[in-house]
Amino acid sequence: MSDHKETPRQLSLGAFLMGAGHHIAAWRDPAGAPQAALNFRNFVRAAQKAEAARFDLVFLADSASIREVESPSLELEERAVRFEPLTLLSALAAVTERIGLVGTASTTYNEPFNIARRFASLDRLSGGRAGWNLVTSSNPSDPGNFGQDALPDHAERYRRAHEFHEVVRGLWDSWDEGALLYDKAAGVLFDPQKLHPLNHAGEFYRVRGPLNVPPSPQGHPVVVQAGASDDGRETAARTAEAVFSAHQSFEEAAEFYGDVKERLSRYGRSRGSLKILPGVSPVVGRTEEEARQKFRSLQDRIDPVVGLALLRPIAGGVDLSAYPLDGPLPELPPTNAGKSRQKLLIDLARRKGLSIRELYLEIAGARGHWQLVGTPAQIADELEYFFRNEAADGFNIMPPQLDWGLDDFIELVVPELRRRGLFRSEYAGRTLRDHLGLARPVSRRASVRPVPTPAE
Amino acid sequence: MSDHKETPRQLSLGAFLMGAGHHIAAWRDPAGAPQAALNFRNFVRAAQKAEAARFDLVFLADSASIREVESPSLELEERAVRFEPLTLLSALAAVTERIGLVGTASTTYNEPFNIARRFASLDRLSGGRAGWNLVTSSNPSDPGNFGQDALPDHAERYRRAHEFHEVVRGLWDSWDEGALLYDKAAGVLFDPQKLHPLNHAGEFYRVRGPLNVPPSPQGHPVVVQAGASDDGRETAARTAEAVFSAHQSFEEAAEFYGDVKERLSRYGRSRGSLKILPGVSPVVGRTEEEARQKFRSLQDRIDPVVGLALLRPIAGGVDLSAYPLDGPLPELPPTNAGKSRQKLLIDLARRKGLSIRELYLEIAGARGHWQLVGTPAQIADELEYFFRNEAADGFNIMPPQLDWGLDDFIELVVPELRRRGLFRSEYAGRTLRDHLGLARPVSRRASVRPVPTPAE
């Protein structure tokens, strides 16, 4: 990976699309589209609006199971159903021209050859706009769909993720520049000297290669990470070109930003070679009161059963419904699922002295991400402060509600960011790498240097 | 699976899109698009043309590896590279409205939960237009990309395919009719009584379910099969709703048609519940001489190295380049890869007394499928004869060249089929099942009968 070209620093914006919106009760908004999570046209509209506003990318999360099938809250949990992200992004590729398309795929329950191939296909057919959000599965209901009784432990999942990434990157480097000739007269399609098997043999995977999809105009898909634990940070520094992070405060965001950027040097990477985009869920009003009113209209629609279900992943098996809703969070044991996220939320509750109800109301909006409620100027002030003070290179915008929530941000906050010279009015390039200011990757095969390893 | 509704019998047409066309030298046609196999717009044009002509479906084959990486013919083999089929079909779903979208996915190197989910997602976002061509991997270069040294043997691949299909069908039946409520006022999304885990535990797979994608307007994707061996025929009769078959003669096609339709009764299925669509590669001219001239222009562009490479999969390890090109095919040992296909081609050479060169020229066009070269009336005569005499319910059209090859069929043969009352002028329905005349499947869960098993 090489340094990126220096351009006037602009912030990057992602549109993180989820169902009827990120607020857990968004689907109950009378103004929202019915069955939003399963309505393709709804996603087309949102992606085209984000493109018209010159966002860098749309982003889709994933889950390979319905959580809590036997729970009383299931019928209240809109996120139980969704389109498989790469299927949806491929369809969106055909009806957009410029915006990046970043999808989540797990390294725990996929074959690296299949993932390398699918993202390379999306990258190629979209003209170089694909990104892969590399995750390890942390949802305890996933393994049952893949022949396993339980998740591999945290450390093993990350070892697997590292090796998986090595294989995928290696497969993406199967084709040197200029390998495709397509010389009709001579009857020569490829230069076989420029096509390389991988012959990977590691702890978890043996993959011969080469990949049967050649590179796109951006070289290969952008690699994105979302983990916040120590393993997650190290994986990001080693493998990622963008990170979608989750923070509740400037201090947390700045600590994360500084730490991950610092870790890059261990892998011979520059600070500009990885972009950090915290998630933020903005509820925008022309006045503070209007914004608060919009937020309240969503909060008021949260059923306590859903609120408690939201807390279940962090509760380590403790049944919180046995405790008073308006009392404090009890002591909780650590879990194997998403250590870092659990810690963030429990810290939040302790720090703010929140009751169980207040904690679920606190996270219901942005699910542990950063919730902003205010005027365009107030929201732009916050984003600008993070951006100018080493806490963010941009933001993954999580519309609390997919229709008015995204529209409000685009119509009210984006113009304010432009007035401040922080965000583009036009795309400068055609690929996701162009938008993010990332250099076209150097093939590891073509590199004179050996593959970088930790300096420690 | 229940009987289909009786409508005036019309033939079904698929557009089997492959790279620059099905003829092995199509990519060398000076009139063709450059890099056709990797040019998304090329596929959009072809799919939209097929839709405008009211074809039932577009179909994409697959291969999970580059064959013959170390062979001197690789650089001549256009099919070495391709988009992953479901990625491409998902993109095509967004720029078409009615045409069915059938893609190949192997049961050998995928997880059934992932395949069930991806096809259900495509089915849902396309409004009920998806089909899954269920195959077992028979390419000896595939296993190396998935941690294996060799393919599982033929019988094991088919046992795995049967169980894989059971799991996928079971997951597609996770949701009963009316399970989705989306009652905003009451805050009730699903009826939990109508959502069912699968709890499958078999020889190869353990899958809990339920699937996190609800059914589409056609219930679930159409299941397609392409195998021609005895195992393949039985799998088709047990699992498929459409079969893409490969034949060289009416006798072969009629034998296959009769045999597979007969086998349906063992599973309690009607003859109309499975549609048989032989592959056919038509080269159409306004005169016979024009058609022959078009075909010759493609045949003349086949390099002998490519021709020999085409025969390699059937040669059972024998190096045919050691034999005279214009001499007979030597004795060949049986291979594990695609038994039935090998037998078909060797029979063909023996029957017609073909030299090695003549055999590769014979199969280069349609690769063992049925090659027609003639006028619109001659081609329509052949198709009509098969259709009216229990050898075909329709055809999977394999354009020898993607631009003029598909155009010629649509502009010259389709009107002739319409004049004969054999092919629709307008779609009668919106889903792939509607086009094929297949009934919406009855959920196995909802069925009063137990899952049918062979009567033998």
From TrEMBL, chains A, B:
It comes from Ectorhizobium quercum. GO terms for molecular function: monooxygenase activity; oxidoreductase activity, acting on paired donors, with incorporation or reduction of molecular oxygen. Pfam families: Bac_luciferase (PF00296). FMN binds at D62, T104, H154, Y158, S229. InterPro entries: Diverse_substr_monoxygenases, Luciferase-like_dom, Luciferase-like_sf, NTA_MOA. Residues 30-386 form the Luciferase-like domain. Transmembrane segments: none annotated. Keywords: Flavoprotein, FMN, Monooxygenase, Oxidoreductase. The keyword Flavoprotein applies. This is LLM class flavin-dependent oxidoreductase. Belongs to the NtaA/SnaA/DszA monooxygenase family. The keyword Metal-binding does not apply.
